[in-house]
Amino acid sequence: MSKKIVVPFGPQHPVLPEPLHLDLVVEDEKVKEAIPGVGYIHRGLETLVQKREYPEYVYIAERICGICSFIHGMTYCQGVETMMNVEVPERAEFLRVIWSEYSRMHSHLLWLGLFADSMGFENLFMDAWRLREHVLDDMEATTGGRVIQGSAKVGGVRRDISSEKLDEMVTGLEGIRGELKDMMDVFLLDSSVKSRLRNIGMLSPEDAYELGAVGPTLRGSSVASDVRMNGYAAYDRLHFEPVVEDGCDCYARCAVRAKELFSSIDLIKEAAQKIPDGPIEVKVTGKPEGEYFSRAEQPRGEVIHYVKGNGTKKLARHRVRTPTMANIPPLVKMLEGCEFADVPVITLTIDPCIGCLER
Amino acid sequence: MVYFEMAKTVVKSLINGPSTIRYPAEPAKEYPISRGHVTIDPARCISCGMCMRKCPADAICVRRDEKLWEIDLFKCHVCNCCVEVCPVHCLTMDTDYRPAFSKHDGVKVVKITYVKPEKKKPVKKPAEEKSEE
């Protein structure tokens, strides 16, 4: 007769570098229930907004997460700029798009590598991270930092990219497109990968929508929702189509991320062609007053930065809703009834970032 | 079902050389704007203290009385903010990453040669003071 037992998964686990803890109620190798536990790395970054002036806080907003750091900084800046009615120069908006898409490529390649590693496919893991180096090199050459870019600024961006460098970057990305294609074929066509991912971690479109999933988790369940469609920064001047898959399983979420890499290359290429000349920043003076919900699309999904000013140099409130926060209820749903051995793979498909989640 | 999808990459890896840099035999990659560590030219510093006021990590301390400029390398998170605000461009960002330390001796002290004189407060004439009163 089977017996229910509780198996702790994490916070330290070989598959996840993130300290996510799950209590898994297991019966006969089947997971009956998963209870998430968070709260291991809380840093109190949101309170710091009351101690730092609003232009200085960009540095802290960028350090919420190491992978999508530029997008965090940019979203915060967008919130403050809208609150203060600052018109950002067009060149700065295009540069923000370029660095956002580079961040997305970097994150997706990192995730694909970790995902291959969680399946036990170490060769593919190294292949993904080898390609990621090209992206990181370009980021360091243009922003000065590999992980923390430090290029977002209230009123524009800090650094410019010359047209020669832009051409070089586009040529480099076109060069790795072929290699990416080879790697994607392994992810999407190989029999061993397919047998590990197909029909695992099912999340129906209704569940995904009702539980508030965002990003590739939502688009993998055939819901075409992407904040980039709203046209923040310069996305309204570029051709953008969200990548949607209808498999509703781990394979579909993997495919969304894989195909978004090519969509990012296209966006960078188009932005590099359309980028106008001109200034990259405007001088911002005054003190913010009012409140604003700033939204942007991170590699993992939609991020919301809520900022509230009170007429002083220091903001009154700053609140972040990160994609991992939104994706935890769908994760619990996915884990119900799955095989115990599939838990690491399913958990990784939402790309949990506990640094983002707890701030 | 497709088998041996990885074969192309495997053959390519066999023929090509290693993808990684053979550090330290080969030098690491560096770019002109890479942020490594902050350096100062003590001869040009006017001890205005702008870098100290703008540093988000409170890593820089300018002591005018003792003619000293200090940076705590453990606190500094190499954001380039001090370099941007320096009015005389005496601060620069070096591309080399700073060396590792085994204990907390990361405070670097630089003796600056010139110290900006403090602004003298305008002395009010006794007649003006009386009229104000």
Characterise the protein shown here.
The complex is a heterodimer of chains A (359) and B (133). Helices cover 47% and strands 14% of the residues of chain A. Chain A is α+β, with helices and mostly antiparallel strands and 359 residues long. In chain A, helix 5 (163-189) runs antiparallel to helix 9. Chain B has 133 residues and is of the alpha+beta class. Chain B contains four helices and five strands; from the N terminus they run H-E-H-E-E-H-E-E-H. Chain B has helices at residues 7-15, 50-54, 81-85, 126-132; strands spanning 37-40, 60-63, 68-72, 91-94, 107-111. Chain B has a three-stranded antiparallel β-sheet with strand order 2-3-5. A two-stranded antiparallel sheet of chain B has the order 1-4. In chain B, a hairpin with a 4-residue loop joins strand 2 and strand 3. Chain B starts with 6 loop residues before the first helix and ends with a helix. In chain B, 18% of the residues are buried. Chain A binds chain B through residues 52, 56, 59-60, 63, 123-124, 127, 130, 133, 137, 140-145, 148, 150, 158-159, 182-183, 185-186, 189-191, 194, and chain B through 1-3, 5-6, 8-10, 19, 29, 31, 33-35, 54, 56, 77-81, 84, 93.
